[in-house]
Prior knowledge:
By secondary structure, the chain is an all-alpha fold. Helices cover 71% and strands 0% of the residues.
Amino acid sequence: MISLDWKQRLKMDTEDFVSRKIPQGDFDIDIVYNAYPKRIDNKIPSEVITFVAKILASKIAKNMDQYLNFYDYLWYKKGENGKQIFVYLMKTAIHRKPAIFLDYVKKVLATSKDVTDINAVLNKAVVPLFKKESKKYLDIIYNWLSLDNPDLHKSIINLFIKVAKNDPTLLKYIFQKMERGWLYPNPHTIKNSVQFLKATYKIDADFYFSVYDNYKGSRNPVFVEILCHALNPISEPEPYNRIVGYLENWQKSGNIRIKKAAATSLKTMKKKSK
């Protein structure tokens, strides 16, 4: 717990940093908290960083779009503490001006290779938007899958799974968005769709199997590869026998991709059912 004396000092130093340092382009925020005497694992306690971020957000809240260079500095130059402050500030900024700051965050995450950092931004700064207009913001985040960043894709699909678990009524909506992408696949379409479809099994098994029923006659190799790779082990005789029938049918295809995907999945399913 931060003592009252230190809270007062951190508050004064943060206000001074905002009024004097930032306007001069001096963004080294650690000058505010480095004097704090305690360390946990040789690091400034997280609650101190959060306290400073909270004061910062309150001081720049009215003009947050004027501090983009500062946010860049926090994210790219100030390590773990900078990213923690960045996430806190983006939570406030996105809530106040979602159009501006979702676009800004998209540009930042487009080049991020750390899934933990990406998850922190999505879960703490972006997810709160879903409480009011889920579909509007799901649409925006879905479009981020067009960025060539597999680490970002993985985090976004995990976010979609989390959203669908919390509100199963959104499962079909999210799936249909991904399903439309099957017609115009990019290098990440199959992997992303497999990750999401596979997870739907634990959210709504009936819906999961309905997807296979719907595409049982497909001869599109992209569709079949997604369906085959997204198969979970099935213990019940039905739908096991039904799905095996679909696989056996695809295995007879003259298309090498369909034939290979079906044969591999069929072998795996039969092996795990023993």
